[in-house]
Amino acid sequence: MIPISAFLELPKHLSHGETRTRVEVEEAVPRLCGGEFASRGETAASAAVLSVHGLPGDEPGTIPAGVLYQTIRTYSGDGAAAFMGRLRSDLASCESYTRDGVAFRTRTAALSGVGGEALTIDVIQPQTDLPGNPVGGSQTNRAVVIRVGDTVTILWDAEYERSSSKPEVVADFARRAVAAIEAWRR
After folding, report:
1. Residue 161 CA neighbour count, 13 Å, CB half
2. Which whole-number Å values give the CA distances from 186 to 6, 72, 111, 132, 149, in the listed order?
3. Are 128 and 134 in contact (CB under 8 A)?
4. Residue 136 to residues 6, 125, 126, 129, 139, Cα–Cα distance (Å)
5. What distance in Å separates the CA atoms of residue 141 and residue 114, rounded to the nearest whole number?
């Protein structure tokens, strides 16, 4: 079992109500081309939480900036490294897709200095207003996948009322997530 203490805890000034609320693992990862995040039954344990967050400098009562989902999976043997390899391979063929009539693009990049290996996945879609009408521009939400030894964590900064991710905030979340996992695995 993965304890709640293994998940990153948002700093108080970024928390908006719900923090580290357990959710189903399947809900906590982005839906891309199809099956990229599937564990394929190879995990020893898995769990997921969500936290509603703000941004540094937000005034009290500000609308939340996003919903951060975090999944943690542990693997036996070299399963975590194998998952990362499969994910990179799957993402190489998932540069664009359409879901519910909306065209999405993905952009991936290695992320250095976080965990044993890490990558970012930006999911880009046309910007819309709350009812779903196009308003021009694009909305980008970021996932970060990090391997720490035999453990993989997936952070998915999903939208809150059509919000885009702030890369520097998600990078901070990634560092905090690694620190929490390392403390748990000691």
Report:
1. 7
2. 11, 16, 24, 46, 12
3. yes
4. 40, 10, 7, 10, 10
5. 19
User: Rounded to an integer, what distance in angstroms lies between the CA atom of residue 38 and that of residue 28?
Assistant: 12
CA angle 135, 139, 143 (to 5 degrees): 165
Q: What is the C-alpha separation between 5 and 72, in angstroms, rounded?
A: 12
Q: Are 124 and 142 in contact (CB under 8 A)?
A: no
pLDDT of residue 2: 97
Q: How far, in Å, CA of 174 to CA of 145, rounded?
A: 9
pLDDT in tens, 98-119: 999 999 999 999 999 999 999 9
Tell me which amino acid residue 172 is.
Answer: D
Please answer whether residues 139 and 159 qualify as being in contact, where contact means their C-beta atoms are separated by less than 8 angstroms: yes
- If you search the block for the tokens 């939208």, which residue do you land on? 159
